[in-house]
C-alpha cells in the first residue's frame, strides 16, 4: 500500500471519534456520518488484492470504533443505517470474496488467510449481547409494521441485519482456540448472545410467518451455519441429567483413549527395555536376509528393532501430486456447552412444531420457480436431514415433517445427487466443492430411509401404511434401487472423503435391511430396464408418385371452380397472405420454392381461394423473371399457370420424408439384421433379493469396503458394523469368501486383533477369524492362493480360486448349453426333413418348435446351423421366399395358369404371386415369365400406370421408334422399379437410398457402343489392364464360391494411372457403359461394379478389354452415344409458368425419327423453344408420364390441352452431342380430328429417309394451327 493511501485511511479512521476510558463511552466526531460513508467508498474501490480491507482489519477499526459507535448512537437512524452497511461489507466471508474458490497462488492464498483471520477476530467481537440486543430491537420494530406498508428501506434493513447474522455465524472458530467438548467456544458464545438478545426468537418468528417469505432463503442459511457443529441425535436426547446411553458412550470413548495411551507407553518401554547403551550397540550379521552383494547382511542397530529391517529405509517415497491426494475432511461436529445445547434443543423443537412444514414448502417453491441463488439446494437438503433426524430422536411424529416424507422428496434428493455427481465428473477444478454437496445430499437420502424405517415400527396403522406405499414405489422403480450400488461402484478416494464413505456405508446398510425385510413379506414385482431388440430396416426416402392416377380427374373437377373464381373476381380471395417467413433463417429469395409447393398443396386440398391469393402475393414478392406470372396476366393465362402447378410433381412443403422400403426377396431375419437400440423400455419382473445382492459381489465394492475398514480405530461402532455386515453378506450369504482374500484386508484384520480387548471390536474379530480359517484351509488345496492375495478378485476369480482354475468357465450358462453329438444329429435330421418336405414355415422357427430341448433360443439354433455349414445363406430358406431357384414342371404350369387368370388385372404381378402355391420373389417370377415367353417385356405385368405408358408407346411403335442409343434409357424408365422421389440432377442420392440405387434396372449397352468407347481410351493401356484385372478377380471369386455376389464391389484406384483415368470423361463413359456406377453421394469415394451382373456379362466385358489392349477391336461404323443419367440442366415449374405468361412463345413440332430397334421406345423428350433458346426438362420420368397422360386424354377428347412428344435430332451437329436436347411443346387443339391429322402427318414425316432435314412448324395459337 502506498504511504499516501495508508495515511488517508488512518486519518479517516481517526476522524470517526474517540473512546474515553474513564467514562467508558465512545464520543463521535461531528463528521462521523460522512467519515463512515468515506470508508464505504474506499471498500467499493478496493482491488483484487483487497488491500484496503486488509488495512482496515489490521487497524481493528471494527472492534475499536464501529461497534462502540453502534452501541452509543444506534438511535440515530441515518448513522445506524450507514454503520450497518459498513459492518455487512467488512464481515463478508473471505471465501465469498474469492467466489467460493480457495486461491492456490501463493500471494493470493496469503491475502485469503489474512482476511479469514480478520473475520475470526470480528466474530469474537460480536460475542456481545448488547450489540445483538440493539439489532434485535431495531429489527422487531420494523417487523411490527405490516409488510404491505413497510417500504423498501425497511425491507433493506431487515435483509442487511439477517446477512450480518449469516456472516458472523459463517465464520469458523479460531484455530488457536482448541477448546474441548462441552466447553463454550466462540461460536457457542455468539449463540448465547443471540439467545439472550432475543434474536433467535425473531428468527423463529420470520420462519413461521408466511408473510415474510422473502427472507426464507436467508433464514435457511442462518439455520445451517448456526447448527452445523451440532449432532441432531445428540441435541434431541439432551436432558437436564445425562441419560444412561450417553454415559455408556462417553465411557467407551474414555476407555478407547486410555487404551491408546497405554499402547504408546508400552511401545516406548519395549523400544528401550533390554537394550544396551548406544555406545555398546554392537554389530550383527543376519543370516536369514541376504544383502545386495553375495555377503551376509550386516546390522549395526540394537536387536529390539530387528523386525523393522528392510532395504527401503533410505528410499525416497514417490511424491503424490496435490490433485491426486485423498480428500481430507475433518469432522465439524462437537459437543457444545450444556446450556447452549438446551437452548438449541428448545429452538429446534419450536421450529419443527410451528414452522417446519410451511417453511420447507416455500423454500422448495423458490427452487422450482428459480428464485433462489446458486447452490441454495444444499441448505435445503441440510435442513431436511437435520430436522428429520432431530424429530426421530425427540418423540418421533411423522406429521411434524410430513412435507419432506414423500416419494417427491426421494425424487428431488436423488435428482440433486445425480446432478452433483455429473458436475464432479465434468468440473475437475471444483470437484471438491461438488463432492461436499453430494455428501449433504447423501445424508438427506439416508435420513429419508431412516424415517421410513421408523415409520415401519410405529404403533399407528396409518403411518405404517403410508411407509409401505412409499417403499412400494422406491423398491419398484429401478432408478431408486440402483442408486446405492451406483454410488458404491463410483467411489473414488481422490474425489470423496472418508466421512462421505462412512455415511455411504451406513446408507447402504439401512437400504439393504429394509429391502430384505420388504421382500420377505411380499411377492415383489419390480420394474427393470431392458434394451429393445428391433430389426434393422433399410430406410429410404419416401417415393413420390410421378403423377397420381386421378390427378387429371381432380383438375377437371377443380378447373370450373377456379375459372368461376377468376371470372367473378371474388372478394373471397384473401389479400393479406404473406408468402414468406421473415423469422426463418432461409433467405427470402430462396423461399419461393416453398411458396410454389404451398400453392400446389392448396390446390390439392381444394382451397382455391388460398391458392390464388398465395399465387398473387408471391407474384408481388418475387416479380423477377415472372416466376409466378406477370402482373398483367389474363384470367386464362392465370388458369393455365395454376393447371401447370397442379399437374407438376413438386411435392408438398419442404419436409423430411422417410419410408421403410419393403423388399421381400431382400429382407433377412439373420442376426446381422438385428441391432440394439439405445433407448431402454421398462418391463416388470419378479424380484429376488439374492439376485439383487449378487450385484454387490463386485471387486469395486470390495475395494471400497476395504478402504473404509482401514480406519477401523476411528470409525464409529455403527459404521464398522455396517461395513462388516456388507462383507458378511458377500462372504456368507453369497458364498464368495475368496473375494476378501486380499493382503490389505488381512492387514486390517491384524490391526483389529490388537484391539480385541475392546468390546466394540468383537464382531470384527469374529468375522476376521472365519475368513482367515477359510483362507488357511484353502492353502492346503491351492498353494497359489498366497499370490492371489496381492490382487483384487472378481466373483469369477474367487470361484476359480476355491474350486480350481477354469471351473467357472465349465459352469457357465453358455458351456452348460453346449451341443453334444446327439443334439447335433437331431438338428441335422430336422434340417434335412424341412428341406425334403419343402415345409413353408421358416426353417429356424420350425426347428426350434420341434427340438426335444425346448430351452434353445432361435439365435442359438441359427448360429449352430451356420457353424455346421447347414445354412450358409439364410435368406433363401426364410418363410415366404422360395428356398430353391429350380422351377419344376408343376411350378411352370401353375405359373402359366396364374398368368392367364391375372394378365388383365391392374397389378398382374401381385395377383400372380398370390396365386402361386410356392411363394417366390417377384423378380424371379418376372424372369421366369420372360424365359418361357409368356411376356415379351417386364412392363406387361407391372402396375397399371406403367402398363398404360407401355401400351401407348406400343401403339406408336408401328409408326415410329427411337434410335438404339435411346433404347437403354427407355428400358430404364419403363422397367418395374421402386418409384423415386424426384431430385435435381445436381444432387446425388442420399445415403438412405444406396440400397435402392443398387437395384435400379440395368442399362444394357450394345457391343458396338462399347467398341466405340474403347477406341477412345485405347491409349490408356495401364488403366484398361487394371480394369480387366478387377473384373477377372470378381469372376474368379464367383467360380471359387459358387455364389452370386449381392453387394456392389468398389473399384479402388490406387496407382496414378488408375486415378488419372477415373477423372477422364471418356473413361467415365466407358465405366457407365460397363455398368459400373459412379459414387452415390459424398460418403462414397469409389466407383462400384454392380453386384447383380451375371458371370456371362463379366466374361464378355473382359474379352472386350483384352481385345482393346491387344488392338484387336472389331471395326464398327455405328456412332456411339452413352445415355446420361440426368440432364445437364433442368427447367422447373417456375420456368414453365414464365413460358405460359409470354405472348411470344413459339411452339415447335418436331417429327420423331424411326429406328431399327424393336425394343420398347425410349423415354420421349419434350421440347419447347422460346426465342430460339433450348431449355431442358425437369426429369425424364416426370415428363414422360405427364406427356403420355395428356396425350391419352387428348385422344379421348377429355382435355383441350396436350403435349406433343418429340425428339429433336434435326440438327446435323446433334450426332456429336452427348445428351439429347429436351424441350417442352405445348399445343392447343380444340378438335380431335386436328389431333389425328397431326399424328398422321408426323407419321408420314417419320417415313421420310431424310433424317437430317426435318420440317418444323411454329404455332402460336389454336387458330393458327387450324
From TrEMBL:
Bias type Basic and acidic residues, positions: 1184-1199, 1235-1250
Recorded GO CC terms: replication fork protection complex
Feature: compositional bias, Basic residues: 991-1001
Pfam family, one: TIMELESS
Stretches for region Disordered: 945-1002, 1154-1266
Annotated keywords: Cell cycle, Nucleus
GO molecular function: DNA binding
InterPro entries from the UniProt entry: Timeless, TIMELESS_C, Timeless_N
Domain Timeless C-terminal positions: 1018-1098
Family of the protein in this entry: Belongs to the timeless family.
Protein name: Timeless N-terminal domain-containing protein
Organism for this UniProt entry: Photinus pyralis (Common eastern firefly)
Lineage of producing organism: Eukaryota, Metazoa, Ecdysozoa, Arthropoda, Hexapoda
Amino acid at each position: 500500500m502506498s504511504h499516501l493511501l495508508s495515511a488517508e485511511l488512518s486519518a479517516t479512521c481517526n476522524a470517526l471519534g474517540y473512546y474515553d476510558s474513564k467514562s467508558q463511552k465512545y464520543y463521535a466526531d461531528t463528521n462521523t456520518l460522512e467519515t463512515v460513508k468515506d470508508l464505504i467508498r474506499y471498500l467499493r474501490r478496493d482491488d483484487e488484492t483487497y488491500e484496503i480491507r486488509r488495512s482496515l482489519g489490521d487497524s481493528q477499526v471494527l472492534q475499536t470504533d464501529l461497534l462502540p459507535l453502534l452501541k452509543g448512537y444506534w438511535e440515530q437512524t441515518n448513522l445506524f443505517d450507514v454503520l450497518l452497511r459498513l459492518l455487512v461489507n467488512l464481515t463478508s466471508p473471505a471465501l465469498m470474496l474469492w467466489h467460493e474458490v480457495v486461491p492456490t497462488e501463493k500471494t493470493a492464498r496469503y491475502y485469503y488467510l489474512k482476511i479469514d483471520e480478520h473475520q475470526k477476530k470480528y466474530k469474537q467481537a460480536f460475542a456481545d449481547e448488547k450489540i445483538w440486543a440493539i439489532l434485535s430491537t431495531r429489527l422487531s420494530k420494523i417487523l411490527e409494521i405490516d409488510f404491505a406498508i413497510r417500504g423498501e428501506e425497511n425491507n433493506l434493513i431487515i435483509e442487511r441485519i439477517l446477512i450480518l447474522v449469516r456472516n458472523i455465524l459463517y465464520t469458523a472458530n479460531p484455530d488457536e482456540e482448541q477448546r474441548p467438548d462441552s466447553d463454550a467456544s466462540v461460536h457457542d458464545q455468539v449463540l448465547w448472545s443471540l439467545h439472550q438478545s432475543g434474536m433467535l426468537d425473531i428468527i423463529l418468528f420470520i420462519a413461521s410467518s408466511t408473510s415474510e417469505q422473502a427472507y426464507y432463503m436467508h433464514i435457511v442459511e442462518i439455520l445451517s451455519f448456526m447448527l452445523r457443529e451440532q449432532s441432531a441425535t445428540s441435541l434431541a436426547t439432551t436432558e437436564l441429567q445425562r441419560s444412561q446411553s450417553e454415559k455408556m458412550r462417553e465411557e467407551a470413548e474414555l476407555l478407547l483413549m486410555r487404551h491408546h495411551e497405554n499402547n504408546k507407553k508400552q511401545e516406548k518401554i519395549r523400544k528401550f527395555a533390554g537394550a544396551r547403551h548406544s555406545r555398546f550397540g554392537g554389530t550383527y550379521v543376519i543370516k536369514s536376509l541376504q544383502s545386495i552383494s553375495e555377503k551376509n547382511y550386516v546390522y549395526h542397530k540394537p536387536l529390539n528393532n530387528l523386525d523393522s529391517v528392510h532395504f527401503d529405509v533410505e528410499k525416497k517415497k514417490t511424491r503424490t501430486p496435490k490433485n491426486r491426494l485423498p480428500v481430507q475432511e475433518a469432522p465439524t461436529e462437537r459437543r457444545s456447552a450444556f446450556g447452549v445445547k438446551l437452548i438449541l434443543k428448545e429452538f429446534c423443537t419450536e421450529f419443527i412444531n410451528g414452522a417446519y412444514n410451511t417453511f420447507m414448502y416455500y423454500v422448495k417453491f423458490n427452487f422450482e420457480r428459480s428464485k433462489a441463488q446458486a447452490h441454495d439446494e444444499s441448505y435445503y437438503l441440510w435442513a431436511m436431514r437435520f430436522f428429520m433426524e432431530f424429530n426421530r430422536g425427540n418423540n418421533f411424529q411423522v406429521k411434524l415433517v410430513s412435507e419432506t416424507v414423500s416419494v417427491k422428496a426421494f425424487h428431488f434428493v436423488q435428482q440433486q445427487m445425480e446432478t452433483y455427481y455429473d458436475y464432479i465428473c465434468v468440473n475437475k477444478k471444483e470437484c471438491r466443492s461438488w463432492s461436499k454437496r453430494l455428501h449433504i445430499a447423501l445424508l438427506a437420502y439416508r435420513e429419508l430411509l431412516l424415517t421410513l424405517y421408523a415409520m415401519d415400527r410405529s404403533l399407528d396403522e396409518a403411518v405404517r401404511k403410508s411407509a409401505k406405499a412409499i417403499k412400494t414405489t422406491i423398491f419398484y422403480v429401478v432408478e431408486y434401487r440402483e442408486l446405492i450400488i451406483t454410488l458404491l461402484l463410483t467411489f473414488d478416494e481422490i474425489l470423496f472423503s472418508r466421512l462421505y464413505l462412512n455415511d455411504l456405508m451406513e446408507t447402504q446398510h439401512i437400504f439393504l435391511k429394509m429391502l430384505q425385510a420388504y421382500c420377505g413379506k411380499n411377492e415383489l414385482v419390480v420394474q427393470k430396464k431392458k434394451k429393445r431388440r428391433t430389426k434393422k430396416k433399410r430406410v429410404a426416402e419416401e417415393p413420390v408418385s410421378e403423377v397420381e392416377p386421378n390427378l387429371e380427374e381432380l383438375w377437371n373437377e377443380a378447373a370450373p371452380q377456379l375459372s368461376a373464381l377468376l371470372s367473378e373476381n371474388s372478394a373471397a380471395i384473401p389479400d393479406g397472405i404473406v408468402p414468406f417467413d421473415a423469422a426463418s433463417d432461409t433467405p427470402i429469395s430462396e423461399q419461393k420454392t416453398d411458396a410454389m409447393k404451398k400453392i400446389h398443396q392448396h390446390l390439392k386440398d381444394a382451397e382455391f381461394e388460398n391458392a390464388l391469393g398465395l399465387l398473387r402475393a408471391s407474384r408481388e414478392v418475387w416479380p423477377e423473371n415472372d416466376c409466378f406470372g406477370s402482373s398483367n396476366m389474363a384470367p386464362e393465362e392465370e388458369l393455365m399457370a395454376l393447371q401447370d402447378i397442379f399437374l407438376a410433381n413438386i411435392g408438398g412443403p419442404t419436409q423430411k420424408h422417410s419410408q421403410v422400403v419393403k423388399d421381400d426377396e431382400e429382407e433377412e431375419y439373420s442376426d446381422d439384421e438385428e441391432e440394439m437400440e439405445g433407448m431402454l423400455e421398462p418391463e416388470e419382473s419378479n424380484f429376488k433379493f439374492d439376485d439383487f445382492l449378487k450385484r454387490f459381489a463386485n471387486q469395486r465394492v470390495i475395494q471400497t469396503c476395504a478402504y473404509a475398514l482401514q480406519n477401523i480405530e476411528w470409525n464409529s461402532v455403527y459404521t464398522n458394523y455396517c461395513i462388516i455386515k456388507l462383507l458378511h453378506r458377500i462372504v456368507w450369504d453369497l458364498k464368495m469368501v475368496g473375494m476378501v482374500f486380499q493382503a490389505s484386508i488381512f492387514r486390517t484384520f491384524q490391526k483389529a486383533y490388537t484391539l480385541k480387548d475392546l468390546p466394540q471390536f468383537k464382531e470384527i474379530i469374529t468375522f476376521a477369524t472365519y475368513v482367515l480359517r477359510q483362507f488357511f484351509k484353502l492353502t492346503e488345496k491351492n498353494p497359489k492362493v498366497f499370490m492371489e492375495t496381492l490382487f483384487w478378485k472378481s466373483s469369477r476369480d474367487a470361484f476359480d480360486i476355491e474350486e480350481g482354475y477354469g471351473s467357472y468357465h465349465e459352469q457357465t450358462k453358455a458351456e452348460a448349453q453346449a451341443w453334444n453329438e446327439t443334439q447335433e444329429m437331431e438338428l441335422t435330421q430336422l434340417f434335412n426333413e424341412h428341406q425334403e418336405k419343402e415345409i413353408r414355415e421358416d426353417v429356424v422357427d420350425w426347428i426350434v418348435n420341434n427340438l426335444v430341448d425346448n430351452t434353445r433360443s432361435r439365435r442359438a439354433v441359427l448360429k449352430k446351423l451356420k457353424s455346421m455349414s447347414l445354412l450358409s445363406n439364410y435368406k433363401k430358406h426364410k418363410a415366404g421366399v422360395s428356398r430353391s431357384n429350380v422351377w419344376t414342371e408343376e411350378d411352370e404350369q401353375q405359373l402359366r395358369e396364374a398368368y392367364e387368370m391375372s394378365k388383365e388385372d391392374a397389378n398382374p404381378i401381385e395377383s400372380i404371386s398370390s396365386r402361386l402355391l410356392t411363394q417366390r420373389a417377384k423378380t424371379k417370377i418376372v424372369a421366369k415369365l420372360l424365359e418361357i415367353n409368356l411376356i415379351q417385356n417386364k412392363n406387361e405385368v407391372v402396375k397399371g400406370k406403367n402398363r398404360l405408358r407401355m401400351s401407348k408407346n406400343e401403339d406408336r411403335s408401328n409408326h415410329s421408334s427411337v434410335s438404339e442409343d435411346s433404347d437403354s434409357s427407355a428400358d430404364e424408365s419403363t422397367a418395374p422399379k421402386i418409384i423415386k422421389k424426384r431430385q435435381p440432377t445436381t444432387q446425388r442420392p442420399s445415403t438412405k437410398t444406396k440400397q435402392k440405387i443398387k437395384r435400379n434396372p440395368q442399362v444394357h449397352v450394345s457391343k458396338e457402343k462399347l467398341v466405340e468407347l474403347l477406341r477412345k481410351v485405347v491409349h490408356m493401356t495401364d488403366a484398361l489392364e487394371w480394369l480387366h484385372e478387377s473384373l477377372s478377380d470378381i469372376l474368379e471369386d464367383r467360380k471359387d464360391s459358387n455364389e452370386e455376389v449381392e453387394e456392389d464391389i468398389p473399384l479402388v484406384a490406387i496407382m496414378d494411372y488408375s486415378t488419372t483415368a477415373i477423372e477422364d470423361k471418356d473413361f467415365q463413359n466407358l465405366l457407365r457403359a460397363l455398368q459400373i456406377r459412379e459414387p452415390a453421394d459424398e460418403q462414397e469415394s469409389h466407383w462400384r461394379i454392380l453386384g447383380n451382373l451375371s458371370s456371362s456379362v463379366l466374361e464378355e466385358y473382359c474379352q472386350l478389354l483384352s481385345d482393346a489392349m491387344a488392338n484387336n477391336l472389331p471395326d464398327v461404323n455405328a456412332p456411339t452415344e452413352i445415355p446420361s443419367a440426368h440432364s445437364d440442366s433442368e427447367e422447373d415449374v417456375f420456368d414453365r409458368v414464365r413460358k405460359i405468361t409470354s405472348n411470344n412463345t413459339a411452339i415447335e413440332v418436331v417429327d420423331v425419327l424411326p429406328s431399327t430397334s424393336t425394343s420398347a421406345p425410349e423415354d420421349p423428350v419434350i421440347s419447347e423453344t422460346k426465342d430460339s433458346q433450348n431449355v431442358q426438362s425437369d426429369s425424364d420420368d416426370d415428363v414422360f408420364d405427364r406427356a403420355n397422360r395428356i396425350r391419352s386424354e387428348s385422344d379421348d377428347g377429355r382435355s383441350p390441352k396436350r403435349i406433343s412428344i418429340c425428339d429433336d435430332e434435326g440438327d446435323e451437329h446433334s450426332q456429336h452431342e452427348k445428351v439429347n436436347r429436351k424441350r417442352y411443346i405445348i399445343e392447343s387443339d380444340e378438335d380431335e380430328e386436328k389431333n389425328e391429322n397431326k399424328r398422321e402427318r408426323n407419321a408420314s414425316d417419320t417415313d421420310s429417309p431424310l433424317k437430317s432435314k426435318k420440317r418444323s412448324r411454329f404455332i402460336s395459337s389454336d387458330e393458327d394451327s387450324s
